[in-house]
């Protein structure tokens, strides 16, 4: 394994940024899909830099490529051309195994639908990325418990997803994304399926964790209030990211 993507569980948080100010970046990112006998070019040269601690919104029409972009940024899919950098690592220079390690350690994901494992408890779901990262079971349980308490679910540790409300499930998903203390969390419409009050709670929680841990957030959202509350808002249009507003000078 590449020494630069080794797991350092004892390091201060967030880890694996190599001290870089830019935690996630892409350059000239292009992605095409084959649809029948034609090629659909979804991303046509996306440029992006996410700074440490920055909270970024990405907005755009349905089908404009927002999920495609998040998946590429997270190394879940590979671009047709262009580069994705996680701190000082060019993803295309890593093999699949190294990419997996880096992703598990440096990035967190929250999907539109929570993607929790139904047969496992909240605690087990949140501990999973730590166990995949080869952390000892007792330590993983401790850290997962701490993170579930932080999202206000200290009383729900043994509940399974089916025993939780939509907002609670999404908070478990957020706890799971944060438990490795990643440099950056990517969220795909995290509050899209929640009522306004719950969406607000989730937003408050994100702000608190951002303040306490300095984690960066890239959030795809349809919620104009959420987009306006973040540091920057970018619009994905015609396969490129355009500046849609600076919310903080
Ligand atoms: P958004 O998240 O903005 O709604 P997506 O990134 O999901 O958009 O999709 C962008 C476009 O790419 C859509 O036209 C979609 O049909 C197409 N697309 C997405 N994933 C695939 C795939 N795996 N194969 C073929 N076409 C895809
Ligand atoms: Mg989408």
From TrEMBL:
It is found in: Cell inner membrane. InterPro entries: AAA+_ATPase, ABC_transporter-like_ATP-bd, ABC_transporter-like_CS, ABC_transpr_LolD-like, LolD_lipo_ATP-bd, MacB-like_ATP-bd, P-loop_NTPase. Its EC number is 7.6.2.-. GO terms for biological process: lipoprotein localization to outer membrane; protein localization to outer membrane. PROSITE patterns: ABC_TRANSPORTER_1 (PS00211), ABC_TRANSPORTER_2 (PS50893). One of its GO terms (molecular function) is transmembrane transporter activity. GO terms for cellular component: plasma membrane. It is a peripheral membrane protein. It comes from the Bacteria. It holds the Pfam family ABC_tran. Keywords: ATP-binding, Cell inner membrane, Cell membrane, Lipoprotein, Membrane, Nucleotide-binding, Translocase, Transport. Residues 24-249 form the ABC transporter domain. Gene3D superfamilies: P-loop containing nucleotide triphosphate hydrolases (3.40.50.300). The complex is composed of two ATP-binding proteins (LolD) and two transmembrane proteins (LolC and LolE). Part of the ABC transporter complex LolCDE involved in the translocation of mature outer membrane-directed lipoproteins, from the inner membrane to the periplasmic chaperone, LolA. Responsible for the formation of the LolA-lipoprotein complex in an ATP-dependent manner. PANTHER family: IMPORT ATP-BINDING PROTEIN (PTHR24220), LIPOPROTEIN-RELEASING SYSTEM ATP-BINDING PROTEIN LOLD (PTHR24220:SF689). Belongs to the ABC transporter superfamily. Lipoprotein translocase (TC 3.A.1.125) family. NCBIfam families: LolD_lipo_ex (TIGR02211). This is Lipoprotein-releasing system ATP-binding protein LolD. The gene is lolD.
């Amino acid at each position: 394994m590449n020494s630069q993507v080794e797991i350092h569980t004892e390091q201060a948080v967030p880890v694996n940024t190599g001290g870089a100010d830019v935690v996630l970046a892409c350059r000239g990112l292009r992605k095409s899909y084959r649809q029948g006998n034609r090629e659909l070019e979804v991303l046509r040269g996306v440029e992006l830099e996410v700074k440490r601690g920055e909270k970024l919104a990405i907005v755009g029409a349905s089908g404009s490529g927002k999920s495609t972009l998040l998946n590429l940024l997270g190394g879940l899919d590979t671009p047709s051309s262009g580069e994705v950098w996680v701190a000082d690592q060019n993803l295309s220079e890593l093999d699949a195994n190294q990419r997996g390690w880096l992703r598990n350690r440096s990035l967190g994901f929250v999907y539109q639908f929570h993607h929790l494992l139904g047969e496992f408890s909240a605690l087990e779901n949140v501990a999973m990325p730590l166990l995949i990262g080869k952390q000892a079971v007792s330590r993983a349980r401790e850290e997962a418990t701490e993170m579930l308490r932080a999202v206000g679910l200290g009383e729900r540790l043994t509940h399974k997803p089916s025993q939780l409300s939509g907002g609670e499930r999404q908070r478990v998903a957020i706890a799971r994304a944060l438990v490795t203390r990643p440099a950056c969390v990517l969220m795909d419409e995290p509050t899209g399926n929640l009522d306004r009050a719950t969406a607000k709670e989730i937003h408050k929680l994100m702000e608190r964790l951002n303040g306490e841990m300095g984690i960066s957030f890239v959030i795809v959202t349809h919620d104009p209030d959420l987009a306006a509350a973040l540091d920057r808002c970018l619009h994905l249009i015609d396969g490129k990211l355009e500046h849609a507003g600076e919310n903080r000078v």
